[in-house]
Amino acid sequence: MSRTWHWVPCPFLTVIEPFSRNQFLVFYVKERSVLGKPFEGGRHLHLTLDGIVKKFDNKKVLKGATYQFEKGKIYGLLGRNGAGKTTLFNCLSGETEMDVGNAFLEDEGKLQELQDTDIGYVYSLPILPEFLTGYEFVKFFQEANPDMRQPESGIDAWFDRMRINEQDRHRLIKGYSHGMKNKLQMLLFLITKPPVILLDEPLTSFDVIVALEMKNMLREMKKDHILIFSTHILQLATDLCDELVVLNNGQLSSVPSELLHSPDFESSVIELLKDEPHG
Ligand SMILES: Nc1ncnc2c1ncn2[C@@H]1O[C@H](COP(=O)(O)OP(=O)(O)OP(=O)(O)O)[C@@H](O)[C@H]1O
């Protein structure tokens, strides 16, 4: 039988198509050897982006993006359609190679180049093994990462924490809604605790109740991680974020914190974004 193999980049596994359970297990185990150690909270941690440039053909999307993020804060990344938010996340997660520039993690004063294993990336369109149930997947994931197992962590406890009900845990991921897949992705990062978590428009697919649960979850997680999420929803950004970062004309800049809860917030952000040619 002839097969076509597609490699799909993913932060915690490499999925192959056409894939079967066995293929998935074999490749998953191979990939897990590159997973990093979980990050222990309580340490000072900074993520520094230094002059990141990314071009596609003649189009320069990132033009020296520079910024410093710190643990304990939720950052909202704002930018117009096509500004390069996903491109920036892809560069940080190692899915796309940056042309120029660097990203570093500074952990208790020790500087090291950012590794793709430092990143948990919640995609706007999650990539998960749809032929497993949520429970099977998390069980397997936990067994494959014994060094990351946490004391309180029975499998059901993780699902409880994510408010995924009994019935849904034992359904095939294939039948999950977009929002549930996002939740399942987030659950994996509760287990692996990567120091940096990137979320590409994560909360847009959640209903109001789940969105509130997820916001609370992110607030709880921020003490242990650098959390950066991209969004177009200004209300969500002001509600959830400690700091807003604008990606405009390929560069990053901070929205002054005093604007965050001022009545002029929306008009100020529009002013900041309006020079960006529409994507
Ligand atoms: N692989 C690629 N090849 C060519 N061009 C690309 C590629 N990936 C992104 N681009 C271009 O780079 C620009 C930035 O795209 P990107 O998806 O990063 O923007 P974005 O800010 O995430 O947009 P949105 O808010 O609409 O999701 C766009 O013009 C896009 O067409």
TrEMBL record:
InterPro entries given in the database record: AAA+_ATPase, ABC_transporter-like_ATP-bd, ABC_transporter-like_CS, ABC_Transporter_VariousFunc, P-loop_NTPase
A single GO molecular function term of this UniProt record: ATP binding
Name of protein: ABC transporter ATP-binding protein
UniProt KW keywords: ATP-binding, Nucleotide-binding, Transport
Annotated SMART domains: AAA
ABC transporter domain mapped to chain residues: 47-272
Organism: Paenibacillus herberti
